[in-house]
Batch of 4 targets.
Target 1
Amino acid sequence: MLVAPSVLSADFGNLQRDVEAICNDGCDLVHVDVMDGHFVPNLTIGPVVVSAIAKCATKPLDIHLMVENNTFFVELFAPLKPEYISFHIEEEKHPHRLIQKIRSYGIKPAIVLNPHTPPECIEYLLEDLDMVLLMSVNPGFGGQSFIPSVLKKAKKLNELRNKINPNCLIEVDGGVSDKNIHALKDAGVDVVVAGSYVFKHASKKKAIESLQI
Ligand code: DX5
Ligand code: ZN
């Protein structure tokens, strides 16, 4: 299981310290939540802060867009060369075109599904994707409780991707901890995002290791 700590739960007064800490403590990706105050009722960080994160991160960035105008934000963040950019299917009329655009920058495209969105709706996009991110909370805030129905959804998506594109990873975001990591693994999940669990733990290293099962 790959682990992507969410910087949203970091201490923003000590952002460099916290980003360096998770990288030194062995995380696999650095998850960056970009919220625009429209698609979700919260506002986070833009390219100035994300480029500061990119400078001190020694692990690849996983940028999760929670925004209304996906194309605008993809163009804004592409120069930072993240490993992944993920966008919400609920907010995109032309997902196939946007996948091609992300790939044209040499970045791996990923699609995010909100808790209510069925995995079948991306069946015909799976062959073009590097990752699908399943939200296990309603997007917008860290520290919320895990929604258990995502396990059933992950199992369904696992079957679909094994048939269509076994290279496409399954990521889960929201309320992840040592309490649900084994169930996530059993459901076929490859990558977990963890914000409050990692940053509130007495040892970030131990928290990360406890999820790398
Ligand atoms: C929620 C974000 C998550 C969040 C996860 O909209 O996408 O990445 O930071 O935080 P925890 O792990 O605390 O639920
Ligand atoms: Zn996220």
Target 2
Amino acid sequence: MPDNKKPANSERIERAVAIATEAHKNQLRKTGEPYIIHPLAVKKILEEWHMDEDTIIAGILHDTVEDTDLTLDDIKKEFGESVAFLVDGVTKLGQVRKNMDNLDTYLPETKDNFLRLMIATGNDIRVLIIKLADRLHNARTLSALPPDKQKKIATETLEIFAPLADRLNMGRLRVELADIAFSYVDPKRFEYLKNLIEENNKQAAKALKEIEKEVKDLLKKEKLDAEISGRIKSVYSLHKKLAKHNQNLGEIYDLTALRIIVPDVTSCYLALGLLHSLYTPMNERIKDYIAKPKQNGYQSLHTTVITPKKKIVEFQIRTREMHEYAERGLAASFYYNEQKLTENYKQGKIQHLPTNLLWITELQDAAAKLREGKKVDLKKLRLNLFADKIFVYTPKGDIIDLPKGSLPLDFAFRLHSEIGGHVSGVKINGKMSNLNRRLEQGDVVEILTAKNQVPHESWFEKIITSHARQKLRQMLPKQ
Ligand code: MN
């Protein structure tokens, strides 16, 4: 059990810094800076997340085994089993992503690469947290890379790492990762939406200040100790929401929202009642995530109200604790709660785990069994990390995420509109299939094309994503 109470810059951490500096001494980053800048940045991020000492040390050393002469044995001798285990996990995760086939050697039980990836790291969730810190620094310094690499890393960040942060309820991290990545994946759209949000905030600022004051006064009068602040929607979440609402900005009511933080759960409902006595709630837009938390453990009350001046505002009401968890998620509670909870759960002291922790326990148990060479029925795992999504693969092993129920043409148009426009057939998992077959998690999809094949009106029936529909529409008149 790592010791949480040691000061952040313990002698062990200093020793890790010295060893990493020495190991990386002749290496440079793409920015031209000494390589050690990167592990030190990862260290700082992990410290900001209040991770335990072993995790911080592993973060400092995370690139040494792969990129320097330092070995896992060296690390084990110097810092012990736990740090070595974490560094090994991060290294393997890197290799796994470079070459998915490597997984055969230690995870022969499943052919589902994404699941394998999760299990390969999941036996200690701290591996994922180090990986997220690593990815955050790489995202922050993406501008130093050539454009094609920027796009590739940004896409992967958007498709895998930002959703992973979301699954761990690390809201602040998710927003930063997604917005940086999106600014590289679709720079024009990013700029457009960013300006739109800023413009909207400017226009709404005055009215919002008034509302804030009104609410503050009422809560104060009712002796409710509350903090109110504005919350600004992130660019990428607006992008996703607009896609859901046919690009109709008029349907987006939470472009700006006010957040109320109160001392306890009772005060949350009290504040909600007071708000509704002041403004008219839009009934269908009241959400009680306190009684029914989101799958990732997120808790809050949401309500959208209309003021007498016809202003529509969303309110989010939560306790300080819920707020901390929404912002920092698993990293916030990991050592303080997760270990204790799962330990108590395993010993039968408590009957239920919060759902957000349950999947982690399952993942850890499955991984431990696999490592011991025992069989695991992976289908029984409730590994619905991305419940509304499936991950499929190109024959080269690139991961493509699609909404559940997607069809081969959705996949083809996602790869490239040129490919989508010339589809002549599809092979799924190496076998000839047809365009009506719904894709499933882990399928390897190979699109066959023919130069003289042209897109057809009837294809609309074999498409479910708006992206593919839009591309097909653009192509049809050209015939
Ligand atoms: Mn790294």
Target 3
Amino acid sequence: MALALDSFCRELPKVELHAHLNGSLSRDTMLQLKRFHADSGLADQTNAFFDEFQVGAGDTRKLSDCFQVFSIAHTLTSTPETLALATTLTLQDFQDDGCCYLELRSTPRDTPHMTKVSYIETIIQTIQKSSRHLTMITRLIVSINRNSTCSEIDEITNLAIQYYKNYPDIVVGLEISGDPTVGSFQTFVPALNKARAAGLKISLHCGEVCNPQEVMDMLKFKPDRIGHGICIHPNYGGTDETWAKLCELKIPVEVCLTSNVNTKSSPDYDSHHFKHLYEAEIPVIICTDDKGVFSTSLSQEYRICAETFNLTPSKLARLSLNACQYIFADDTRKMLNDKLLNFINKNAL
Ligand code: IMP
Ligand code: ZN
């Protein structure tokens, strides 16, 4: 039975809407990247390196400590060549896991070998190249880190708008992520308004830590989707008002079960807020967040969701079908929808 559910979850066409590139690098991808950095002094520290990168269920690091692990991946993706390789291998991983549509997100950054412009161009070109041999459709969401200065916020927003205009078939959105204890949402509002006016969709990491005022401000902004949405229900660090607002607006929530459990944002799977969202009929999309850091996959997240909340294969398939409604690439929605409906009919779900 467990095996059957396992293979069902892999075969189910899935939609991934919350995946950070540098958190999604598999062990194999990191090994391949390390070959490009053989002379950087990291070559002999393979085990320590991987142990630090991966945040398991019993990890003693606090949520804010977990943000340091990304610098490990960043050292491996600091040139256009390694960034392109990381992107290529990560897209292949998602397709191999049965993902039919991916919205990859990443934070453009300057490195000694690359500007933010070459960072974003490299990812766009790699997505274009990969689309020639992959069946999975990939789109890009540009990320802004909460620790950014005002000039960085403007710079990245302008880049996102410029590349959205030049590559509307690749760039679809802008999102805010990074350590939720740092920075203030209000700082980002002018840039987000500008991006939205230009046509970009917006996703916000929302309610990762208890901060009802910020959650309320974010919900009132009416983003197209929110990530995590943990501290919104009053049982989880939200208030009656924040929960009522989410129920009223029904903003789709990108739910990342293993990420929340491994960072102890949720004590265990059973008490995860998914059940409140699902019962309140708030749209939920099962996502991985950082499949490399949390040693997971999208099919594994679907399986965990089914096992924890007693969802039948039919309900799982409908979760994936519903997710198609909330993708940012409007032009591919119907095609994905039909693909899911075919799967549901073929398997008599
Ligand atoms: P990158 O944007 O491709 O470099 O992916 C890594 C970045 O994603 C991190 O530096 C964080 O800013 C962001 N990130 C990854 N996971 C989370 C999360 O759970 N909450 C908030 N931000 C995250
Ligand atoms: Zn995230």
Target 4
Amino acid sequence: MKRVPIIAGNWKMNKTLDKAVEFVNVIKDQLPSPDQCRVMIAAQPLFLADMIRAAANSPLQIFAENCYYHDFGAFTGEVSPLSLADMGVDGTILGHSERRKIFHESDELINKKVLAALRNNLSPLLCCDETMGRKVAGNEVHWVVSRILTDLRDVPREDLSKITIAYEPSWAIGSGQSADPVQAEEGCYLIRQTIADMYDDEAAQQMSVLYGGSVNAENASKLMASEDIDGCLIGGNSLKPETFMQLVNS
Ligand code: PGA
């Protein structure tokens, strides 16, 4: 089963509006066609409308980095999935390790967000982290599997094609020390097997699973050569257009 490679940038809380739009203008005409490689950038909500305008008629997909699970209401400071969809945002990262660690997001909350994104026709880019402690203690299998089981609870099989999952060990994020291709493949394989157990083999083979954590232009192609790694979620190295395009081209 051939899955289209994906390169996704996660800018986190970086850039200013003019730099965000400038980035889109620099890369938008250099991108491969979406059947060769899907390219997406996730940015702060304040930049998204202008980025969408700049990316019009290009294959670049614009993602949010998070959203809430209600469409409206008394939730001061939250971002509505309905508003994101209404603006023309393609999808949203959900359950990033930083949201789990700093903002104490649980799998139960992330599951509600996944369902809300799907209800609004936003593609979830669901992140699944894992700590070094769990790896050393040998219980990372249970950890990864239980995260996916809860995060995807009640997701109908027909909605799976809208979801991308990223395996991101928290010790590899922003550390400059990527998982090696064997470790990264293990995590992505485990996620795919969990999908096969929850749904079926065909669903698992169709699911795009990315690796994230200190991906750079040198290690990206080695990581992506692995059977179960369909692409990369890139933080620090997605911030400069030249470096990001090197990753797309690799
Ligand atoms: P990094 O971040 O590439 O800077 O390690 C990845 C991520 O947080 O998604």
